[in-house]
Design goal:
The structure is a homodimer. The first copy, chain A, is an alpha/beta fold. Chain A has two domains: about 5-50 and about 150-310, Rossmann fold; about 55-145, Rossmann fold (3-Layer(aba) Sandwich), CATH 3.40.50.1100. Helices cover about 45% and strands about 15% of the residues of chain A. Chain A has 13 helices and ten strands. Chain A has helices at about 5-20, 30-35, 55-65, 65-70, 80-95, 105-115, 125-140, 150-170, 185-195, 210-220, 240-250, 260-270, 280-290, and strands spanning about 25, 40-45, 75, 95-100, 120-125, 145, 175-180, 200-205, 250-255, 300-305. Chain A has a six-stranded mixed β-sheet, with helices on both faces. Chain A has a four-stranded parallel β-sheet with strand order 5-4-3-6, sandwiched between helices. In chain A, α1 (about 5-20) crosses α8, α5 (about 80-95) runs parallel beside α6 (about 105-115) and α12 (about 260-270) packs across α13. The radius of gyration of chain A is 18 Å and the shape is globular. The termini of chain A are far apart. The interface of A and B includes residues 25, 266 and 313 of A.
Chain lengths: ~325, ~325
């Protein structure tokens, strides 16, 4: 594998991913199309295993390991979708997943990860404690660390969502993805620019967590500082490997208000009758806010996932 | 058409319905299957036009009219999904839909029906006012009244959902539908018993609106009296035409608690990432409550629709 995945890496990833993951449907809504004046196609990763695109990258990373490395298991620190995705992928390969979770993680998330058979180590809820605890676990077990996004196999795996979207729905003028750590966006850009060189790739980010937007405009990586957004999947800082691909392949990054994220989420729930998490609503929010012009254009949108606490809805 | 639709009526209805309605997907969930110990297939009428199975029946009724009758339009009194369904079907045929709505109907419902171009007449919110206002509108316009469920063309149209379910997913041991007025249930029973004579047809009803259960057990039609349930699509009384078919073709009717309706609804939202209305959750509630045994069996469930007020969720 080269330093940046090339399209053959994504093809290789897809051979693995399609064995274990769902080929999720692409849906559209004539009433939303009428509202926005363009033709939107939603790639429904909310229907993916573990409820998020994260399973693609985790799956590719786990099944790309040599037999010898695989025996020692995999590890990560995460309290979110990546932890569940890595745990399930490891279970499918029959190897250990060592997950470091902050001790104050929601019970529902602890249960989900434990339910996939992962070995959980709890730590204090600081980045430092998470990293040092993971380092110790890895030293003791020899497990391979699988970073949630700053990892080439993960990036190649995430790129399979856009590949399927294009294979299933044909040419697009624009493909839009949300951006957090940048795993989904960098994979999406690699697939799209290879398959449809003239298609624009645009990322949408909450204004309250705009490190990717600022980094992209300055061509210099800024970390996420005190981010605040309902789109809890997009709080993390961009990875440097993701940033390199994003600078090279992404056409633009735009930011959106919290209000429009909630409005877009509600529109998709009400009109399409599907459950998406707030992060998934960010691309449509950018369209509703007038930040991306899709008038009379055909646009693909990656819906990142559908995991959220139904007891804490914003409407 | 005979007094009870025969299978050729449903086939005829399907020729119409498949021209104008969505062939909705059939989904299943490995995690729900694990919980219930059987194999469940959900026919997703929440993805149907206007968000409910009601469009099938309305569509068949509107397009079965002679040219001469059609010119004078159609009419109904309804504040729910049938009003929207009839309005859209009439719009597709290019004829008038006269909808009588109680003046206290929610603004969102008034807007939805108006949005499909229906001619709305408001009346006092009593059954008497609804019926007398509709009678007047029909006398003035010559429109054909299309009852929401006590109508053979409507019943034949609703039967196309089970027909598609069986065509797409093969043999079933049991097919389960919710029961309110009985349009969906009678259509489902007609299709199922013709296509799969050995398949059981079971209806699930909220205990707080159990007129169908009581009527079925006594073999005598009782009206719904002061019904109270979150499953607002199931408040109405059984129609006599529906009841005749139900007595002949349905194997059993069971009742479920409000608590289990909410639990089943949440389970489908969380595990399947799709939005269903409370009425749709009643069949799964019956399984969770132990009222229908599906252990090691293959069961089809009709999800009736996905229309509800996101601002008033029960969790």
């Amino acid at each position: 594998m080269t330093f940046i995945p090339i399209y053959s890496d994504i093809e290789k990833a897809h051979k693995i991913v399609q064995k274990y993951a769902h080929r999720t449907p692409v849906l559209s809504s004539s009433s939303i199309n009428k509202i926005v004046g363009g033709e939107l196609y939603f790639k429904c990763e909310n229907f993916q295993k573990v409820g998020a695109f994260k399973f693609r990258g985790a799956c590719n990373a786990v099944f790309s390991l040599s037999e010898e490395d695989a025996k020692k298991g995999v590890g990560t620190h995460s309290s979110g979708n990546h932890a569940a995705a890595l745990a399930l992928a490891a279970k499918m390969r029959g190897i250990d997943a060592h997950i470091v979770m902050p001790e104050n993680s929601p019970v529902i998330k602890k249960k989900a990860v434990a339910g996939y058979g992962a070995k959980i180590t709890f730590c204090k809820p600081t980045l430092q404690a998470r990293e040092s605890t993971l380092a110790k676990v890895i030293e003791e077990t020899g497990a391979t660390e699988i970073h949630p996004y700053n990892n080439f196999n993960v990036i190649a795996g995430q790129g399979t969502a856009a590949k399927e979207l294009i294979e299933d729905s044909g040419k697009f003028d624009i493909i839009i993805a949300p951006v957090g750590g940048g795993g989904l966006l960098s994979g999406t850009a690699l697939s799209t620019k290879y398959l449809l060189p003239n298609c624009k790739v645009i990322a949408a980010e909450p204004a309250g967590a705009d490190d990717a937007f600022r980094s992209f405009k300055a061509k210099k990586l800024f970390p996420s500082e005190n981010p605040k957004t309902i789109a809890d999947g997009l709080l993390t800082s961009l990875g440097d490997r993701n940033f390199e691909i994003i600078l090279d392949k992404v056409d633009d990054i735009v930011t959106v208000s919290e209000e429009n994220i909630v409005a877009a989420m509600r529109m998709i729930w009400e009109r399409m009758k599907i459950i998406i998490e707030p992060s998934s609503a960010v691309p449509l929010a950018a369209i509703l806010e007038g930040k991306i012009d899709i008038k009379n254009k055909k646009a693909g949108i990656i819906l990142s996932g559908g995991n959220l606490d139904l007891g804490k809805l914003p409407f």
